[in-house]
Each structure stands twice: as C-alpha cells, then as structure tokens.
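Researcher: Structure prediction, please.
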Amino acid sequence: MISSLAKWCRSTCAFPWRVLFVAVFTAILARGANGQLSIGSIAVLQSADDYLVIAADSKKLNAKGVSLHSCKVDALDDQLIFANTGYGSYASVRGKWDATAVARQHYHVLANTPRHELISALAEAYGADLAAKLEPDVKDHPEEGWPQSLVTAIFAGFDEKRQRVVMEVNIHQLQRDGAGRAVGYSTKRLPASDAVFAEVIGETAIAQEFAAGRTVRSQSWRNGLDFEVRGLGVKERLVAGAEKIVELTATYQPSIVAGAIDTVLVSRKTKVKWIHRKPECTKGVAH
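Model: Predicted structure follows.
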C-alpha cells in the first residue's frame, strides 16, 4: 500500500510535498482502526524544517448533546502547542474538568523545569492526571460504552537548544482479568529532527482512505490537494495538508467530526502564530 502511494507521489508531487505525503500517510496507516474514537474529534500534526502545525475540528459529543464550539488546540507558551482529542471535558458527581485547563495547570506547575525536560514531564503529568480523573467513572459506569482509547493528546514545541520535541499521550482502558475496569496511560516521543513527520490522532477512517488511494473519491481528494498546494512554500503546504485531512473527515463523517477548524503554527523564528482561530480559542498563556 505504501509503495503504491510512493509511486503516485513520485509522479505527481514536487519535493518536499512528495516526502510529506509519504510521512503523513505512513503514520495514518500504521495507526489503523485502533486510533479511532467513538466520541468524535480529529487533530492533525504536520511538521517539516522549522515548522510544526496542528489543525483540529470543533465538535464535542457527550451525554448532554453536541457542541460545535469546542477548542481542542491551545498555545501553552510562545513555543509550545497542545492538542487534545477524545474526552476533552467531563462532568460527574465527582466534579468536572476540562482537558485544556488540565494541560495549562500542569504547565504552570512545571514552567521552571529545564526546557529539554519540560515537555516530556508535562506529557507524563497530564497522562497520569487524566487517567486518574477518568478511572472512577469508567469503572462505575460501564453502561456509557467507553471506547478503548479515551483521550489522545499531543504536546509539540522546541526546547532551549531549539530542538524539536513532540510527545504523544494516550489515555486508555486497561485489560485486567478479574480485576474490573481500569484506566492507564502511555507516552511516546515522536521524531525530533527537522525531517518531515506527521501524526493523526482521533478519527482516522477518512485519512486512511486518503492514504490507501484505492477509491475513486480518494484519488479525487489527492488530486485536489495536489492542485491546491502547487507553487506554495513548505509552511503553507503543511497548513493546507493538515487542514485538508480535518476538512475531509468533517465532510464525510459529519456525525462525529465537524465545526470550524482551528490551526496553529509554531516555529523557532516566528514562534506561535494562529492561522485560524475561533473566539473560544482566545484564552491561553501565549494568546
């Protein structure tokens, strides 16, 4: 599947877009169905050279209904951005919480940590906190039909040596024979060099179809995106590619992904720059 995609890129895409396509689609295909969340959400990270871009949708699904005003992207400081998919907030008899607020709280606690340690420490603290917050409800209310993957988040930025640091956090149900339900978390560090890299978290079905290129419509999507980015620079191509995956998912899976697309870019030179931002995304350290 990847080799056929690479062949297509060689004939239609100009560098570095050709390389970017292969990187992003390899990540999408490797994740497979296990990355999907029954509660909606998608966030796309694309990076190359000096740039990191995150785009996300605005739809939130919960027991109280649907909201199209959820902000899933945040700038924690002028060189660190955050995105969350899955349970972005939750309310129960134990209280309520918001995932972005949790990320900010831990950032403030850890703000004086040496930069090269900060992002990984933040990912660990965030994962442990959300797992602890979700576990009582997952254990006591199985009727809610909790998905295997509850929350996936990304922290992406640069350290004091101007090195790229990207951490992914996954909060998920644990399988414990005879011990009932439990919630745990895991973190992983994504490639740190300036080489092209991409990651898609949340609802990945449309992204996978795009990657495989086996359907007529996916071939049309590819051709359309290739036309859109022709003649653009690396930064603009990263933004267009990330937003296109979110846009297509919202178009073909409107019951689970929808609303305005929020997009933020961070680089060593220009630091954080919002490309698209709705009013709900105006609060934050670097806004």
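Model: The first strand starts at residue 42 and ends at 48.
Researcher: Thanks, that helps.
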